[in-house]
């Protein structure tokens, strides 16, 4: 072919390519220019959702790299996913301590926090490649039987639905009472302290430091994702424990049992801390098990004890209810190391205790500096916003099952499993049937377990037993502690033991009957029903419209919170300088444009009449002296408490409240006989 022919061919090719590109892009651009795939609202909603996920993942990656940088050598032999979860847990705990220190020093400006995160990222920089390799190594578990495939489908579906709910704006009760209210107050005041009368601000705040990050960047929808992440990490550690101690089949069952607890999904979809405590308790036991293996093999062991101590401190930084866990671990260490002599065994316990104390000290110090009580509001009748009457009110001794129905202490596990329901006065959590079912099978197959597995199971039972005893003691003495959620810290270990119980039934096989087949059938059937229930609840919540921008946040909150959302919107329209006192309404997170004081313990009025013995005039004068301009009365909440007899209302209390309404409170707005906003007059 000559030069002219080649030139003509090149020009022809160029014209053809130009036509193809122009034709394709002109049609697509023209069509979607007039039929936009997403309007401004949709684009904004999707961007907000994506931003929340991105913030969570970036912080999780930083935490995992930080944890790997500090404990990488010790965790080098662990499976990549387990190493990732343990490293992330270590990093998140340390990150919370850094933020707490900054908050105590008044360094909570966004640029200051960003500088701190950058400094931590630079320190952890060498660990990022390994962390990324661990994350990329994740694969779906390989299934070898039909029941395993169903377990996997159930887990993916239930976790997927929960993730979508977690991405929606926060509406859960405790989130609006204090889990999000506390970090919002910290950011408003520029430091961590106790700025208003909310006793829950005295609780350890390790989990709330993660929520603070979400609020700091204007993405409160990311707060729940941190808790969801703890749920994933807890699942990873639970399965790893079950597989290491009882075998592969037990690992499958342990995952199914943990994911069969409806309350687990409800809680990880909200900015709570219960599942974070479950993770640190389970991970702490993982370190104890690895220490026992190293000790019995004569290998280096100190590193495992250091990690155990840190994780115990992190658990104490989440909830005071973790108090029984260190005792159980101390007894396990003493028993395992008894052959080394009392001094060496005690030295190992002392090392763990020292690390735990270092990790938890920051929360105790902050409490002591701001309230005068390191474990505020417990074990003291004095303190900021605190007195003997409120101490009694918060505790309510003598109202528990020991005084009202002592025989129910024997049936509490069965009651909590069968009748317990979230949002009700009956154990306030939905546990599901599989946890107790599997635990009940454990004695049947106990003798089939290898001796090492039995020894490890014994340590699990010690930890679970001490926590259960503490829970039972709480049930016995106070009606306010009738909550299954207080047992969540040991649900990971209980799932492992239940998984061993289920897996062990596979050996109960005869030509005429296979007990293992029956158990698998029951478990699969239960999971199918649980997934159906979860799907129905998901459809009722309908988070997808708000996640995609098709529904506004205000509309979503009205659907989920009812008239309460309208009330908060009205409060935010009050004149500047307004101060609103809540009565029988503890949720104040959404009240942002004006100063609001929630009735966190539902005692704001009765504290006036029972403790201070004040009449209506004195109460009104006290409220005016505190600068309140308005009073929000949660009428339906008060009416429920009076009708149920849950609080010590007397006829004199009701008369005083009527006098207060008549003489000193001027109605401003009424919402369906549920709420009334008053102007506080003279």
- Could you report the average pLDDT, rounded to the nearest whole number? 92
Shape descriptor reads globular
| Class based on secondary structure composition and strand pairing | mainly alpha
Query: Which strand order do you get reading across the main beta sheet?
Result: 4-3-5-7-6
Main β-sheet description: 5 strands, mixed
Strand content: under 5%
CA-based gyration radius: 28 Å
Question: Which short descriptors sum up this protein?
Answer:
66% helix; globular; five-stranded mixed beta sheet; 30 helices; 7 strands; mainly alpha; single chain; 682 residues; two-stranded antiparallel ribbon
Write the layout of secondary structure elements.
Blueprint: H1 3-34, H2 40-71, H3 80-104, H4 110-124, H5 128-136, H6 146-166, H7 173-179, H8 181-189, H9 206-216, H10 223-246, H11 248-258, H12 262-268, H13 274-296, H14 302-316, H15 324-336, H16 342-371, H17 388-395, H18 401-404, H19 408-418, H20 434-445, H21 451-477, H22 491-504, E1 509-510, E2 513-514, H23 515-541, H24 544-547, H25 553-561, H26 563-571, E3 579-583, E4 595-597, H27 604-611, H28 616-625, E5 630-634, H29 635-644, H30 651-664, E6 665-671, E7 675-680
Parallel strand pairs: 3-4, 3-5
Antiparallel strand pairs: 1-2, 5-7, 6-7
């Amino acid at each position: 072919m000559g030069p002219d022919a080649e030139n003509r061919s090149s020009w022809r090719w160029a014209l053809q390519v130009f036509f193809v590109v122009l034709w394709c892009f002109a049609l697509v651009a023209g069509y979607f220019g007039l039929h936009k795939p997403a309007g401004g609202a949709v684009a904004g909603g999707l961007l907000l959702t994506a931003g929340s996920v991105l913030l969570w993942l970036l912080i999780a990656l930083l935490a995992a790299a930080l944890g790997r940088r500090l404990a990488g050598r010790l965790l080098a032999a662990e499976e990549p996913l387990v190493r990732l979860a343990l490293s992330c847990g270590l990093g998140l705990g340390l990150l919370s301590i850094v933020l707490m220190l900054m908050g105590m020093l008044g360094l909570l400006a966004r640029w200051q926090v960003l500088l701190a995160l950058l400094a931590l990222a630079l320190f952890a920089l060498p660990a990022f490649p390994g962390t990324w390799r661990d994350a990329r190594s994740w694969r779906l578990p390989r299934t070898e039987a039909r029941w395993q495939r169903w377990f996997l489908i159930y887990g993916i579906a239930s976790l997927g639905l929960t993730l979508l709910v977690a991405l929606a704006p926060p509406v859960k009760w405790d989130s609006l009472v204090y889990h999000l209210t506390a970090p919002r107050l910290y950011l408003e005041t520029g430091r961590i302290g106790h700025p208003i009368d909310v006793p829950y601000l005295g609780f350890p705040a390790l989990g709330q430091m993660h929520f603070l990050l979400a609020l700091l960047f204007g993405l409160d929808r990311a707060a729940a994702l941190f808790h969801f992440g703890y749920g994933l990490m807890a699942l990873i550690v639970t399965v790893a424990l079950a597989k290491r101690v009882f075998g592969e089949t037990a690992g499958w069952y342990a995952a199914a049992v943990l994911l069969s607890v409806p309350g687990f999904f409800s809680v990880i979809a909200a900015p709570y801390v219960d599942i974070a405590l479950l993770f640190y308790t389970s991970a702490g036991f993982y370190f104890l098990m690895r220490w026992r293996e190293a000790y019995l093999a004569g290998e280096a062991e100190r590193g495992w004890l250091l990690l155990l101590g840190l994780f115990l401190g992190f658990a104490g930084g989440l909830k005071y209810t973790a108090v029984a866990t260190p005792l159980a671990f101390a007894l396990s260490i003493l028993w395992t190391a008894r052959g080394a002599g009392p001094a060496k065994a005690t030295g190992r316990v002392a090392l763990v205790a020292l690390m735990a104390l270092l990790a938890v000290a920051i929360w105790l110090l902050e409490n002591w500096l701001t309230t005068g009580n390191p474990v505020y509001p417990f074990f003291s009748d004095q303190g900021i916003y605190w007195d003997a009457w409120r101490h009694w009110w918060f505790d309510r001794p003598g109202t528990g099952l020991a005084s009202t129905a002592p025989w129910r202490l024997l049936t509490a596990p069965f009651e909590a499993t069968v009748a317990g329901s979230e949002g009700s006065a009956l154990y306030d959590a939905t546990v599901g049937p599989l946890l107790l079912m599997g635990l009940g099978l454990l004695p049947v197959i106990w003798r089939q377990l290898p001796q090492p597995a039995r020894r490890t199971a014994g340590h699990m039972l010690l930890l679970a037993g001490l926590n259960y005893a503490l829970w039972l003691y709480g049930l016995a003495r106070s009606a306010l502690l009738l909550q299954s959620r207080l047992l969540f810290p040991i649900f990971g270990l209980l799932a492992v033991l239940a998984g061993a119980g289920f897996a062990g039934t596979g050996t109960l096989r005869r030509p005429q009957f296979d007990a293992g087949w029956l158990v698998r059938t029951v478990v699969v059937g239960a999971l199918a029903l649980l997934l159906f229930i979860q799907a129905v609840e998901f459809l009722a919540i309908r988070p997808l419209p708000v996640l995609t921008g098709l529904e506004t946040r205000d509309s979503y909150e009205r659907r989920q919170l009812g008239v309460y959302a309208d009330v908060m919107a009205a409060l935010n329209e009050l004149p500047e300088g307004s101060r609103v006192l809540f009565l029988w309404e503890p949720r104040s997170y959404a009240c942002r444009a004006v100063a609001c004081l929630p009735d966190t313990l539902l005692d704001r009025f009765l504290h006036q009449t029972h403790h201070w013995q004040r009449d209506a005039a004195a109460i009104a004068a006290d409220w005016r002296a505190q600068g309140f301009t308005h009073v929000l009365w949660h009428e339906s909440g008060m009416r429920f408490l009076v009708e149920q007899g849950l609080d010590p209302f007397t006829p004199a209390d009701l008369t005083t409240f009527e006098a207060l309404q008549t003489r000193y409170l001027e109605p401003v707005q009424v919402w369906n006989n549920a709420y009334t906003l008053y102007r506080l007059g003279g």
